[in-house]
Amino acid sequence: MITKIEFLDKDKPNKEVLKKAGEVIYAGGLVAFPTETVYGLGANALDGEAVKKIFIAKGRPQDNPLIVHVADYNIDYLVKEIPPIAKKLMEKFWPGPLTLIMKKSSEVSEVTSAGLDTIGIRMPLNPVANILIKEAKVPIAAPSANISGRPSPTDIERCIEDLKGKIEYIIGGEKCGVGLESTIVDCTIEPPCVLRPGGVTLEMLREIDDRIYIDPAIMKKPEKDFKPKAPGMKYRHYAPKAPVKIISGDLKKSVAKINEIVQNYIDVDKKVGIMATDETKNQYSNAVIKSLGSRNDLYSVGKNLFEVLREFDDEKVDVILSEAFEEKGMGVAIMNRLKKSAGFDIVES
Ligand code: TXA
Ligand code: MG
């Protein structure tokens, strides 16, 4: 298949392109598009045949449901009911990086929900995504626009790398602002539960309802018969080709430990990548050193994380050593993705 690639200016996007891309979605095709979290791979959420193509293009397991993206608050036709807490969260955080799980209506294809009776819905902030949804005239089911298992793409080049030749359209241009996938809150249970941490932090959610909590299963090493509430959280995920190890504990000790591990790898001729921060990057040597950003600005770390993981693949390192972050605020989402990309391989310093 020939993939059309169109670069768009987020603040002044070419309406003609978005109209054509919308028509492709409406007609059952696939379009990769930017959102404020990561790039999405979209299809008509109401059309099971169209949505099946997403699973094929990504190589995604069939039991992993997709998020439905909307451009206006009238979502009554997609759900059985809107719980009062969901209404409050929508009003506060939409458009933005927050997905709400509700009971689905029969309008939404079973393929989109992977057979579940619930559906995740979110309203993206990026104007390109918004106009695309409006032009498509249907809600858009979209997972992250990567080959299943790889880190989610946060710029158009990474979408092209993964999906060129497999889908009709790739549109976008600018880097995603958040860089990590949306926060998911299950609003079908009391109290509501965070199934995946993201740019809307637990602290922010608790300002609306202080009973909201994070599914404890997602931050620790999965047990054998582990069944997270978000099916996708059980897969090895966000993973570059090289194995990732997280070095946790006091930062000074971590730096020393990382230098020690680097030496061990060098001794056996291995190429090491280090995920450092602005505060520590000058304290390492003999490795490919990349800073994720400043520890004083965890949003910058989140924004760069997936891109840095992919850059280490390009550099063909044999192993990636990462510093850890405090699990507070945005640090929860960062550590969730890091732990999953490392397959929970954590070394205490
Ligand atoms: O930021 C995002 O959410 C991005 C952009 C494109 O919007 N999308 C995204 O989709 O991250 P994906 O497919 O990579 O991740 C969706 C996650 C999976 O872990 C899936 O299991 C969970 O959401 N999920 C979707 N529907 C669900 C449901 N009904 N119940 C529980 N978990 C659900
Ligand atoms: Mg994904």
Would you mind describing this structure in some detail?
It is a single chain. The chain is α/β, with parallel strands linked by helices. The protein folds into two domains: 4-219, DHBP synthase (Alpha-Beta Complex), CATH 3.90.870.10; 244-348, Threonylcarbamoyl-AMP synthase, C-terminal domain (Rossmann fold), CATH 3.40.50. It is built from nine helices and 16 strands. The strands form two sheets. Strands 1-8-2-3-7-4-6-5-9-10-11 form an eleven-stranded mixed sheet, sandwiched between helices. Helix 1 (15-26) packs across helix 4 and helix 8 (298-314) runs parallel beside helix 9. The longest helix is centred in the C-terminal third of the chain and has 17 residues, at 251-267. The termini are far apart. Bound molecules: threonylcarbamoyladenylate and magnesium ion.
Overall shape: it is globular
Helix content: 25-40%
CATH level 4 superfamily of the largest domain: DHBP synthase
Q: Separation of termini?
A: 49 Å
